[in-house]
Amino acid sequence: LTILGIESSCDDTAAAVVRGVAGTATILSNVIFGQTEAHADFGGVVPEIAARAHAEKIDHAIEDALAVANVSLSQIDAIAVTAGPGLIGGVLSGVMCAKGLSAATGLPLIGVNHLAGHALTPQLTDGIAFPYLMLLVSGGHCQFLLVQDHDKYTRLGGTIDDAPGEAFDKTARILGLPQPGGPAVEHAAKNGEPHAFALPRPLLGRDDCNMSFSGLKTAVLRARDDVITKNGGLPLAARADLCASFQAAVTDVLVGKSRKALMAARAISPDVNTIAVAGGVAANGAIRHALKELCAETETVFVAPPLALCTDNAAMIAYAGLLRLTAGMTDDLTLSARPRWPLDQTSPTLLGSGK
Ligand code: ATP
Ligand code: FE
């Protein structure tokens, strides 16, 4: 099977071609047009700018993806598109474009949940079998998912406020470091002492798999102000210590809760023996290292897809579409774009739009 994937739910316009069967598929092309510059002056993604940029770039992304893959539309078996969750303007651009292509070519149309795309990536990259535990940690998401099949997910817990990527970005802002904050904080932390500041590990003592990161960034702000009051400024060494202490707190929470999530996953499906990560925060070396240690200790396999496939891309959407097509789950032209779409409800057409 050869699937064209389209992704436009946030600030990347992406198209990709994936070929193969469930469990062994190859990425023939994976084209991404970012919008970082378009939003740079606004300190975040501006939905109207994002929607316009998607509409402008999406045809181009698809043409490039087909050209790089060296396939024509006539060699494609289905068109998979992110139908949510995400910024509605962006999701709509993708869905309308996919519907147009489907109507013009007669190819099957498949609406994919963006989070399912992330959750299925470790199978695309590493061929791992179901069931597995997935930790999705990005700028906008933080959750533990038990992945039992391409359309069977159980959310075991997640953040009750900020996502860790957001906390990294805010911490960088508080400490005068550039955006995106994750890499900047990680880099600065290399020269710091992780125990220098006693920052909180919110909810870590609780038995559930929920997490909280907003208090942590407030604690960083307070610690920074204390340092400034005492020193009349923020010395580089103190900044490095704050970065290292912040990163250690996030790592402790993610690893401690991963341990609990593994137990919760095994209570539902005893043969879970893999922990996979996805999302931009999975790029963090300290977090990866600590998760690897947890896996060694619990005799679990650790899988971290290459970074380009951990963050938003269309190859994951094409692969999720391939699995849905294989299961005979296609959509028709009534497919709607859904700003919110919990992963445990996987069929976009059946459920219509809404929460
Ligand atoms: P989503 O895809 O959930 O809507 P997003 O597009 O913001 O959100 P990603 O592109 O997956 O998410 O990841 C970006 C986030 O990852 C940013 O918040 C960034 O700071 C963080 N990040 C990137 N590299 C690192 C790193 N080395 N350490 C920690 N965080 C990082
Ligand atoms: Fe994403």
From TrEMBL:
This protein's GO CC annotations: cytoplasm
MF (Gene Ontology): iron ion binding; tRNA N(6)-L-threonylcarbamoyladenine synthase activity
Protein role: Required for the formation of a threonylcarbamoyl group on adenosine at position 37 (t(6)A37) in tRNAs that read codons beginning with adenine. Is involved in the transfer of the threonylcarbamoyl moiety of threonylcarbamoyl-AMP (TC-AMP) to the N6 group of A37, together with TsaE and TsaB. TsaD likely plays a direct catalytic role in this reaction.
Family: Belongs to the KAE1 / TsaD family.
EC number: 2.3.1.234
Species lineage: Bacteria, Pseudomonadati, Pseudomonadota, Alphaproteobacteria, Rhodobacterales
Gene3D superfamilies: 3.30.420.40
EC primary class: transferase
Organism: Octadecabacter arcticus 238
Predominant location: cytoplasm
Protein name (database record): tRNA N6-adenosine threonylcarbamoyltransferase
Amino acids binding Fe cation: H114, H118, D312
